[in-house]
Amino acid sequence: MAKQLPYKTIREIFRRFREAEPEPKGELEHVNAYTLVVAVALSAQATDAGVNKATRTLFQIADTPEKMLALGEEGLIEHIKTIGLFRQKAKNVIKLSRILVEEYDGEVPNSRAALQSLSGVGRKTANVVLNMWWRYPAQAVDTHIFRVGNRTGIAPGKDVVAVERAIEDNVPADFALHAHHWLILHGRYICVARKPKCGACIIRDLCQYEEKTL
Ligand code: SF4
């Protein structure tokens, strides 16, 4: 695990990220808060591209919890069977839609606890929804962010909660909202798992990873 980088270095890293991409966006397609919750719930252990392919037609038919319940579990499965773990995910989406209708008047709530009361929605999913929809500077740590945080020293931590806390504690407030997407995109396209593209990395001189590639 790298050592925690100092404030000035972290500021410079995010200044470069912002210069390269001022408005980073998530890649999961959605048309409202509800479809974002569904898309994130479907994306566990699946690629965003794979989820988007399935949800493009699904969300034309079912873009509210009421319409999803009308479609039903079997109907939903027909749309998402190209996505891993689709049976369990279909069950969760139907259950969470029912909870939304019965307990939240069909609206997506905006507290972490309320979001996590929905079936299949864990801390990471709740943080993605808080960040992408409600523009709250929540940090959803996935495998990419965990790797980048630890390699660079931006946010070292033994587990995802420790990395989440390190991001919250160390990323300057003016970068906090977009930190999630800058880190995720960096991990997805540059600081990749097997052979990071250090030669093309804009923070190479600031990163602490000892096994940088050329
Ligand atoms: S220099 Fe290499 S290891 Fe460090 S952030 Fe860039 S790609 Fe990742």
Main beta sheet: none
* Termini Cα gap: 21 Å
- Report the structural category: mainly alpha
What's the helix count? 10
From the alpha-carbon coordinates, what is the Rg to the nearest angstrom? 18 Å
Q: What would you say this structure looks like, in words?
A:
This protein is an all-alpha fold and 214 residues long. It folds into 2 domains: 7-24 and 138-200, Helix-hairpin-Helix base-excision DNA repair enzymes (C-terminal) (Endonuclease Iii, domain 2); 33-132, Endonuclease III, domain 1. It contains 10 helices and no strands. Helix 8 (143-152) crosses helix 10. The longest helix is centred in the middle third of the chain and has 19 residues, at 86-104. The model has no long low-confidence stretch (mean pLDDT 96). It binds iron/sulfur cluster.
Topology of helices and strands:
Layout: H1 7-20, H2 33-42, H3 48-61, H4 65-80, H5 86-104, H6 112-116, H7 123-132, H8 143-152, H9 160-170, H10 173-189
What would a concise description of this structure say?
With 214 residues, the protein is mainly alpha-helical.
